[in-house]
Design goal:
Elements (H helix, E strand, L loop, with lengths): L1 H14 L4 E9 L4 E8 L4 E10 L5 E6 L5 E8 L1 E7 L4 E8 L8 E9 L17 H67 L12
Antiparallel strand pairs: 1-8, 2-7, 3-6, 3-8, 4-5, 4-7
Length: 211
Amino acid sequence: MWVRLLLQLLWAQLLVPLVRGSELTFELPDNAKQCFYEDIVQGTKCTLEFQVITGGHYDVDCRLEDADGAVLYKEMKKQYDSFTFTAAKNGTYKFCFSNEFSTFTHKTVYFDFQVGDDPPLFPNENRVSALTQMESACVTMHEAMKSVIDYQTHFRLREAQGRSRAEDLNSRVAFWSIGEALILLVVSLGQVVLLRSFFSDKRTTSTRVGS
């Protein structure tokens, strides 16, 4: 019984890669625009999720177009967002991320573009009769593992974003400390020079006039 359960769980994990999609983390330079393309069949449900991990105010422009160039989604200066749609026609869909509004700040962007729904865990899962107790347990565990993967991705992004902010704050504190040390050194030297000028011996010369 347990051997069969383990085999079904293994089959469930093998089914996950069958869902088409793209998941990528890339660097977007300043004044730059990066586009990606995906061939989609009519009637396919798709989901685009993105998040800016590092850079500036953690914002980016996003635009999604269908095969004819019609705009399906457009947002300006978004930190993160999710958009779900159903393809109305066959063709190559395009989604772009733009950092053209930034003059000197690079961005690191993560996106996940899922195309299609997950296939059924069992070939006869959509049958009229109810699933057995073992099959129901497999489906429940499969959904739980997908949720775990989503949570892991979410927390990895949060960790990367937090680490970037911490490193940036650490650099600013370090530069500020060095600046304060230099200012303190200059002020100290200035005070020493000023005090020495107060207590320095001023030699005066006197001249005797003989009669």
